[in-house]
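Final report, closing paragraph on structural work. Over the funding period we assembled a curated collection of sequence-structure pairs, and we close with a single example.
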Amino acid sequence: MKKRLTSLLSLLLVLVLLAGCGGITTGGDAAPSGTGTPGGTADPADPSGSGTPTAAEQTFRFAVLDDPDSFDPGYTLNTFAAPVFFNCFVGLVRYNLDNELVPGAAESWDISEDGRTWTFHLVDGAKWSNGSPVTAEDFAFAWQRVLTPEFGSAAANTLYQYILNAESFYKGECAWEDVGVKAVDETTLEVTLKDPCGYFPALLATWTYMPVCKEVVEANPDWATDYDNYVSNGPFKLDSYRMGEGIYLVKNENYWLADQVKLEKLDLMIFQDLSTALNAYEAGQLDGLTSVPSTSVPSLKGRDDFYSVPQFSNTYWMFNTKDEALSDVRVRKALALAIDRTSLIEDVLQSDAQPATGHVPTGYVQSDGQDFRAAGGDYDIGATAKVDEAKALLAEAGYDDPSQLTVRLNYYTSDTVKKVTEALADMWQTNLGINCVIESAEWAVFYDQILALDYGVAAMGDQATYLHPMAFLQTYQGDAPPLETGWRSQDYENYIAQAMSTTDSAEADRFLHAAEDLFMNDYVLLPLYYGSMRMMMKDYVSNWSMPATGQYVFDQIEILPH
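Its predicted structure, as stored:
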């Protein structure tokens, strides 16, 4: 017997993304959704006062922070590409305005009794922006590209960790026909997993699992840089791109729900400087922006168009557990306890972030209705420094004279990260009397140092791409994790594997807590704060939302008369 799921998934609503690494984020309190209160009288283009904006008025101008490194959803994990992917493509499932997982390109699906085989039934009549039909083979082809090493995808592991024989194919040990991905017919896609996975729909909502048009990509492998021939299956299509200036999208008339899309144009304007973006917004050149300078938050907080949006994110520092000075867990714990996180947030960052007490941030509601973080431990980590406890731990570790201990702090070049680094060093020197050496490098060099274990304590941050604790905990699992701490635990591996394979959500929660407890009680990471995105949105923008994963989807937006 099989279970048919159509409108999706109250049981899987709050599932989350493989972490995007390297960012420092800052914090907040309430998720927004916009209803768009009109801000004026009759529209000059609508003298009747009927309140119906013309098509020409349906342009939404939104500030983004940088150019994407690729316009190919299978290739990159760079979050600057997210606004393009989530507005130009639709995967098998997607998030709606209420941050719920709902059907996307798949209108329904079946799950085998053992929970391993998922059969997806695609929307009948769905088309690419060039008019070609969206087929099951387009999905299979897209995933095959990701799993082909020569393609160079940054996200291959997000497929081969779950799909049957996908890792063997990636390693060249089997043919594609042996992989658990089959286009049964034009509108039926069958996916067989290694093990049952209760949060698989959340993974499917990430851009790595989005389709590409097989006939276009095979004919033109450089399609993602040939902007005149860029093909998408979502509510918008790429019209033009000017590096450093903007990404200009227009309504995709071939989208199967095109009649529900009010916007005619979506202008993603690129601003690398937050102050410049805010000035453009205040001058009426933008309708919304994704972030504001920390120094502007106090003056913006009381405004109706300012929103602090919780993100499923964690800013932390990684310990090199192979470093001589940091190999003792008592030293690592002492450093974790000696941080005044409240001071760091309020005085250094001037933000509304939340002090972090574990690796998995607040925001994930587990099966019993509790927030995962609230149900977990705090590992003796508090909002303020526990100096006496920290000093006692150093003494236990043999540092009766803390000045004998020198800690190396490594960070990637960034003004914000520099401030955090200097604040940490000052706290450790003042509270503990240890010596600190600060080193910085550009991201590429810094990341190579991480992989080579050539660091002491290193700045890092995770922004989840799907709503689930695994987005954070799996990052440090496996023989070749994307972030290297030198720490390994077979028990940790087992807990993660058990959490991945069980279909009992309560049991999965227990395994996930056990994994985090093991990880955090060894103080592999130094959690600092859980962040949020601070947004500005004009009151005439209606029907918008921002999920915790930062999936910018604007297909429901309408510009009201103003």
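Confidence is low (pLDDT under 50) at residues 1-53. The CA atoms of residues 246 and 269 lie 4 Å apart. We thank the funder for supporting this effort.
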